[in-house]
Automatic annotation (TrEMBL):
The keyword Protease does not apply. This is MATE family drug/sodium antiporter. Residues 478-489 have a biased composition (Basic and acidic residues). It is found in: Cell membrane. Residues 468-489 are annotated as: Disordered. The chain crosses the membrane at residues 28-48, 60-89, 109-127, 147-167, 179-201, 221-243, 264-292, 298-318, 339-363, 383-401, 413-433, 439-460. It comes from the Archaea. CDD domains: MATE_like_12. The gene is matE.
Length: 489
């Protein structure tokens, strides 16, 4: 039995269940489970870098703490297009319009490539100034810059892979992206330490001689990530062009259609603002964190990396709810979409609360996995314990904002995110970090997690997301003006 056969015995693909009829829990589970695994592989990129750079030096670990939010910011500004593509594909699939889904996917790939190149150029020339503004120290700044310059040059490959995952998910296929991600991550983990530390092999045999590769440090971690993502993108494009798994793309549909761009922008721009708001919040918090010693910066980086693992189920289920909502809105079944969101919120609250309790008791051993510096371990332990018991509220927020996005109400999801992170978390951290030192930042995380869940729940109950604008139109090959399946609030 090959890899795909093994996966088939554990997971179920889109052809084995209907997202618009029958039970809700089972298809949501089988849709979300591969996303959990895919996101786990995704996080493995960051964790591998964090682990190896933690062994390399504390300065390198602090530098990656500054670099990751900047990477997230660059990707988030372009990520809205992939969200728009996913929503369009989901709603057209639910409405039984596969040709329109293919056209939407093809245009998404084209405009995503254009945006990623522009953002990569901006990132490459702007990282030095940006990192200086948010307070990177003289020892950390050049390390973070060298990492981000490589990432910026490879942003097309990184962002392109995310688009592949999003389009396949909109169709309902979450298994294929999981398998591609596995291969990409495995490659990254293998080459990461060699590129960071370098290697030298000396043999006496005359045909072997001396083999050496230079120590690249933090830049080596960036090269490993870009290279492995690039190979993943190539595989993903081959799958979509072939079209026997998930949505298919066509060269004839990929010439930029600027009359179609407004449709992507109306749905995608708020999603970009949501992702950008999250990234900007992380960077603004770094301005506060930078007032403290590098040990606190390193602890902040470790803590946020741990959160990225803990919240994998929430992110995955939210993506599953997004797809279920999209397809059910396309099929004119908003009540079924609401039931999926409610079920997801309840389950995630219970699962993440249990995870938070576990993290509270094991905070010190978790921190010890990433660094040998006892001061960093102690601060990380404090960070994890302050936030751990509010993990369940993150699950509620993610479930409902996922349903908003699937309904095309990406502006609503963006407003909730910006309010939670920019209006609540950042001001509290700014004020509380004075009398409470770094603990004030940790308190801000906990309070904003609870507040975000309350806001998302109450807004969802208003029911404005049930409105939709799905219009029948001519097939793409007849040069239609395809109407937007769903607009933002």
């Amino acid at each position: 039995m090959g890899i795909r056969g093994t996966a088939r015995s554990l997971f179920r693909g889109a052809e084995e269940f209907d997202l618009t009829s029958g039970s809700i829990g089972k298809p949501l589970f089988f849709l979300s489970l591969p996303i959990v695994v895919t996101n786990l592989f995704q996080t493995a990129y960051n964790l591998a870098d964090t682990f190896w750079l933690g062994q390399y030096s504390t300065d390198a670990l602090a530098a990656i703490s500054f670099a990751f939010p900047m990477v997230f910011l660059l990707i988030s500004f372009g990520m809205g297009i992939s969200v728009a593509g996913s929503v369009l594909v989901a709603q057209f699939t639910g409405a039984g319009e596969p040709r329109k889904a293919e056209y939407a996917a093809s245009q998404t790939v084209t405009f995503a490539a254009i945006v990623s190149v522009v953002l990569g150029v901006v990132g490459y020339f702007g990282v030095d100034t940006f990192l200086g503004l948010i307070g990177a120290s003289d020892t950390v700044l050049p390390l973070a810059v060298s990492y981000l310059e490589v990432i910026s040059l490879g942003l097309l490959f990184m962002f392109g892979f995310f688009v592949f995952v999003a389009l396949m998910r909109g169709y309902g296929d979450t298994i294929t992206p999981m398998l591609v991600m596995f291969g990409s991550v495995a490659l990254n983990i293998v080459i990461d330490p060699f590129l960071i530390f370098g290697w030298t092999v000396v043999e006496n045999a005359p045909l072997v001689g001396t083999v050496a590769f230079p120590e690249l440090g933090i830049q080596g971690a960036a090269i490993a990530t870009v290279f492995s993502r690039g190979l993943g993108l190539i595989v993903g494009l081959a799958i979509m062009f072939r079209g026997n798994r998930g949505v298919q793309i066509h060269l004839r549909d990929m010439a930029p259609d600027f009359s179609y761009l407004p449709r992507l922008v109306r749905i995608g721009l708020p999603a970009s603002l949501e992702g950008g708001g999250r990234a900007l919040s992380m960077n603004l918090l770094l301005v506060i964190v930078a007032f403290f010693p590098d040990t606190v910066v390193a602890a902040y980086g470790i803590g946020t990396r741990v959160f990225s693992v803990i919240f994998l189920p929430a992110i995955a289920v939210a993506r599953g709810v997004e797809t279920m909502t999209g397809q059910n809105m396309g099929a004119d079944k908003p009540d079924r979409a609401a039931s999926a969101a409610k079920l997801a919120a309840s389950v995630l609250f219970g699962v993440l609360t249990a995870a938070g309790i576990l993290v509270w008791f094991t905070a010190a051993p978790i921190a010890d996995l990433f660094t040998t510096d006892p001061a960093v371990v102690g601060i990380t332990e404090q960070f994890l314990r302050y936030v751990a018991l509010t993990f369940g509220f993150i699950g509620i927020t993610r479930a409902y904002t996922g349903s908003f996005r699937g309904a095309g109400k990406t502006l609503t999801a963006a407003v909730i995110s910006v309010a939670t992170l920019g209006v609540i978390r950042f001001p509290i951290a700014w004020v509380a970090s004075g009398p409470l030192a770094e603990a004030g930042i940790w308190v801000a995380f906990a309070i904003s997690n609870v507040a975000g869940a309350v806001i998302a729940f109450l807004w969802y109950r208003r029911g404005s997301w049930r409105e939709k604008d799905l219009t029948n139109s001519q097939p793409p090959q007849e040069k239609p003006r395809i109407e937007t399946p769903a607009d933002g609030d």
